[in-house]
């Protein structure tokens, strides 16, 4: 469960991104495609070359959705309800835990490369818990 | 048989040469115990693990973290024979330590985040991809002798 301290740390970390959401999103997706090639199977309709516009646009979308979640940490289920439906019924990212785990790992790496020492164990833990909670909500309606 | 390209080997050894094994090892193990607190169950004899500060400052955690990462260094010297390198350690983790192999994957991912925070933009996507491959193979080699 996210403690009050976790929520504070997450909001602080997100605040430090200062407008770089598009870059963070694009880089997270790119790293995910490089490190975990099977994740590309969910994007057969995309141009997946480095720097592609579709990756940028989609990365921004993902990060903005995470930003919305972060503004609604006390009610993730409701805040992500639409996305939960989308992932369960349309996208069917399978298995939900695994693939979202890869996105989570890559987001952590991007945040760590940008924040360096500021990406403390406490921040790392809070972000990991947040991504885990988000993944759970997105997987809620799978069956 | 695992295949490493010359470029992949260079990305591994090039980064490894700049790693402070003691610091990185201590940090990786501390983060494992902090981010995934259930892993503390394997370290009952380590004393005070009651808070992130206690864990980070715990001398046994530091020492063991160094041991773990030193062993990782052995793997890097033997990239073409990870199975052989980890054979005895695999038996140990199964028969004596009773560690669920899922934990090797967790530690591998944590190590990657530690490297990312130390090397920042030098930890490029290409670098991360090769290191994810490495930690995955190390985890696999450590799980190989489980029965």
Class of chain B, according to the CATH hierarchy?
Answer: Mainly Alpha
What is the CATH superfamily classification of chain A? Globins
Structural class of chain B: mainly alpha
Question: How many separate structural domains of chain B?
Answer: 1
- What is the oligomer described by this structure? heterodimer
Bulk shape of chain A: globular
The shape of chain B is: globular
Give the termini separation of chain B. Answer: 22 Å
Backbone CA Rg of chain B: 15 Å
- Secondary-structure element string of chain A: HHHHHHH
Largest interface: A-B, 23 and 25 residues
Q: What is the arithmetic mean of pLDDT of chain A? A: 91
**Percentage of residues in helical conformation of chain A:** 55-70%
CATH topology of chain B: Globin-like
Q: Beta fraction of the residues of chain A? A: under 5%
| Tally of helical segments of chain B | 7
> CATH topology of chain A, anyone?
Globin-like
Q: How would you describe this structure to a colleague?
A:
The complex is a heterodimer of chains A (143) and B (147). By secondary structure, chain A is mainly α. Chain A is built from seven helices and no strands. The model of chain A has no long low-confidence stretch (mean pLDDT 91). Chain B is mainly alpha-helical. Helix content of chain B is 70%, strand content 0%. In chain B, helix 1 (6-16) packs across helix 7 (125-143) and helix 2 (21-35) crosses helix 6 (102-119). Chain B is globular. The mean pLDDT of chain B is 94. Classes of the chains: A mainly alpha (143), B mainly alpha (147). Chain A binds chain B through residues 27, 30-31, 34-36, 105-106, 108-110, 112-117, 119, 121-122, 124-125, 128, and chain B through 27, 30-31, 34-35, 52, 55-56, 109, 112-114, 116-121, 123, 125-126, 128-129, 132-133.
């Amino acid at each position: 469960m996210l403690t009050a301290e976790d929520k504070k740390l997450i909001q602080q970390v997100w605040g430090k991104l200062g407008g770089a959401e598009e870059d963070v999103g694009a880089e997270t997706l790119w790293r995910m495609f490089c490190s975990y090639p099977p994740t590309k199977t969910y994007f057969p309709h995309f141009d997946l070359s480095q720097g592609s516009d579709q990756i940028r646009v989609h990365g921004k979308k993902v990060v903005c959705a995470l930003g919305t979640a972060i503004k609604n940490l006390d009610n993730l289920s409701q805040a992500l309800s639409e996305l939960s439906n989308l992932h369960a019924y349309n996208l069917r990212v399978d298995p939900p835990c695994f693939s979202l785990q890869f996105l989570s790992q890559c987001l952590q790496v991007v945040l760590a490369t940008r924040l360096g020492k500021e990406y403390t164990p406490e921040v790392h833990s809070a972000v990991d818990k947040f991504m885990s909670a988000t993944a759970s909500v997105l997987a809620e309606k799978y069956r | 048989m695992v295949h490493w390209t010359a470029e992949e080997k260079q990305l591994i050894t090039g980064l490894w040469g700049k790693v402070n094994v003691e610091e990185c090892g201590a940090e990786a193990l501390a983060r494992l115990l902090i981010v995934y607190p259930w892993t503390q169950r394997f370290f009952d004899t380590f004393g005070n693990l009651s808070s992130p500060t206690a864990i980070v400052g715990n001398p046994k955690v530091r020492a063991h973290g160094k041991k773990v990462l030193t062993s990782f260094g052995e793997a890097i010297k033997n990239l073409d024979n990870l199975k052989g390198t980890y054979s005895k350690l695999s038996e140990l983790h199964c028969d004596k330590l009773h560690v669920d192999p899922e934990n090797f994957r967790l530690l591998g991912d944590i190590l990657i985040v530690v490297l990312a925070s130390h090397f920042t933009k030098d930890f490029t996507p290409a670098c991360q991809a090769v290191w994810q491959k490495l930690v995955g193979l190390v985890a696999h080699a450590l799980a190989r002798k489980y029965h």
